[in-house]
Amino acid sequence: MSATPPPLRIGIAGYGVMGKAHSYGYRVAPLLRRLPVTPVVTVMSGRDAGAVAAAARAYGIPETVTDWRELISRDDVDVVDICTPPGTHAQIATQAAAAGKAVLCEKPLAVTYAEAAGALDAVTRAGVHNAVGFNYRRLPAIALMRRMIDQGAVGQVRLWRATWLSDEFADPATGWDWRFDRAMGGTTIADLGSHLIDMALWMAGPVDSVCAQAATFIGERAFEGGMAPVTVDDAASALLRFESGARGTMEVARTAVRRPCDFTVEVNGSQGTLVFSYARLNELWYGGADDDIRLYGMRRIRAEHPSHPYAAQWWPIGQGVGYGSSFANQAADLLEGWPDAPWRPDFADGAAVQAVCDAMESSAASGRWVSVSEVLASTL
Ligand SMILES: NC(=O)c1ccc[n+]([C@@H]2O[C@H](COP(=O)([O-])OP(=O)(O)OC[C@H]3O[C@@H](n4cnc5c(N)ncnc54)[C@H](O)[C@@H]3O)[C@@H](O)[C@H]2O)c1
After folding, report:
1. CA-84 nearest atom, ligand 1
2. What band does 236 get if pLDDT is binned at 50, 70 and 90?
């Protein structure tokens, strides 16, 4: 009988939706793969003592603290996992790195490129493992899409296209919270767009410049008996020019009625097309220029075959995976090579995404094309 691998002790800051998703991921990861360590969440932080205690009980986490600084300073925490709002990320990550802890940070890495670059600098100087929670990369169909692009299935990428439609902000009666505050929640470009931009950079390479527009349709929201101003966009769209010469378009919206979390990614290359739609997340559509013309159209790939990324570790073909699987895959990917293998996507990837977000925000504000190099130069 082989011994249980030694524990890798994790402290999770934040107990909301992502605190739950990450807790789930660490529990399931050892069921999927043989890991050199056993992930154990030792402590969770939250400002409301009662609420964080209730969440920790439900997630099976033995201890709680009410300040993330306390979580960072504990001897029984090797990895700080940041599941708090974006405006807190850079500060928590920087302090965790200074304490010598590995850091996994939810997306977006920060709310500005300057903050993201500061966090990147901190983890680089400290030499600690670092990763950003771009979990959608770990869905089998998205991972397969990237692999097929790499293997030449679409030839040279010419067009990249993505949308993310949600109705999170559609109801004017939804009250104000941190998501409506730019300094804490970041823009819709950074919130939803960061996932799409990560996939764009991963699949089509660096972005050269962007031209964007953004709008806020509901300018204030109920808060503590009064009204508070909304300082983020409800929706935005952008044209992208990639360094490779490829072109792209992207639209994000949190005011699309009856669209819950509908995102799509499409790539058109010189030799083929790939289409992913999150509503059918175990599928990928593919058509190649050399396909039999009598079968003109696209074929639906079931991204569940054991030869496909992640699929062999999950259920028998035909059963599919869901959102939660991406967090289990994330935990397994990060811990599989512990402590030697670097983590990806890392803070450098997160900062690169944030630079494109900043370029889009700057373009939307100024009404002109903005190059990513302008953003990078402005923080030198
Ligand atoms: N990868 C994904 O699929 C995904 C999905 C949703 C959210 N997110 C990201 O995860 C992060 C958290 O989002 P969520 O949906 O879990 O939010 P949430 O509102 O459900 O939970 C946020 C947590 O942070 C705490 N918090 C709030 N303000 C804080 C502050 N000023 N200082 C310290 N803690 C504070 C809250 O008490 C709560 O525990 C965000 O960065 C968000 O963009 C990622």
Report:
1. 24
2. very high
